[in-house]
Amino acid sequence: MRRKRGRFIVLEGGEGAGKSTWAVFIRDWLQSQGRKVVSTREPGGTPLAESIRKVLLEGRDHMPAESELMLMFAARVSHIKDLIEPALMSGQDVVCDRFVDSSYAYQGAGRGLRRELISALERMSLQGLKPDLVLVFDLPPVVGLARVQRRGAQDRFEREPLAFQTRVRREFLRRARLAPRRYRVIDASQPLEKVRVDLLKVLEKTL
Ligand code: T5A
Questions:
Q1: pLDDT value at position 152?
Q2: Which of 82, 145, 189, 194 is the most buried (most CB within 10 A)?
Q3: What digits encode the pLDDT tens for the residues 49-97?
């Protein structure tokens, strides 16, 4: 008998939006419903993609935007083929901290690369794979950056100026408006307890 495909849930948003925090919460919530869950992140999720992540986040050499974009997709293909697809096919839910929307937001709106370039790579790499639900954790970049600064050392993306982070935020919101059936925007600037209540409402309604 064919097993029912799992659900693919993605968390997106700017720096310090709380995605890692809420990814754990969503995994626990799904497990409490008796679901088997794989929790993962981008860039990363497989040994190859985690090695690429190090170059992308910690690299000190100049990196052209096109190289950055292609490294994101190189990591993503490994992640999809070796982790996400097999998990979904075996009936497990996948909770993923960032996915392709981040490429549109950071490499597209942030770095200024053309959308058509990103959608060509998306078509080639995703082969029709689409998240069932994209949760956009939205907050003003000043609030998110203050949170990550409190945490200590910052990576290549967290060091980008406010104007860059503002373009990133706008792109997430633009993409959420384009596909309201699959996207939900959550106000992540609120206190943790209030975000938890809003997120739980969305999970109970959509999943
Ligand atoms: N990237 C990624 C691209 O450029 N293109 C791509 O295609 C992809 C996939 C990944 C970087 O790669 C870039 C974008 C990213 O910059 P990362 O380290 O995974 O790097 O970075 P983030 O995903 O941004 O993860 P962060 O850890 O920085 O932020 P999170 O996960 O959103 O936030 P979290 O949960 O770690 O919380 C940050 C702090 O804020 C507190 C938390 O306790 C924590 O201390 N916090 C709150 N405090 C008060 N009130 C709330 N509501 C709070 N929510 C969280």
A1: 87
A2: 145
A3: 999 999 999 988 899 999 999 999 999 999 999 999 999 999 999 999 9
- Residue 82 to residue 9: CA distance in whole angstroms: 17
- Which residue puts its alpha carbon closest to atom 1 of ligand 1? 102
pLDDT for position 168: 98
Answer whether 204's CB lies under 8 Å from 45's CB: no
Residue 178's SS3 state is helix
How much is the pLDDT for 15? Answer: 97
Residue nearest to atom 24 of ligand 1 (CA): 15
Q: How far is the CA of 14 from the centre of ligand 1 (A)?
A: 7
Calpha distance 35→6 (Å, rounded): 9
- What is the three-state SS of 109-176? HHCCCCHHHHHHHHHHHHCCCCCCEEEEEECCHHHHHHHHHHHCCCCCCCCCCHHHHHHHHHHHHHHH
What number of other Cβ atoms are within 10 A of residue 108's Cβ?
A: 24
**Residues in the chain with pLDDT values less than 70:** 1-2
Q: Please give the Cα distance from 87 to 134 (Å, whole number).
A: 18
Alpha carbon distance 162, 166 (integer Å): 6
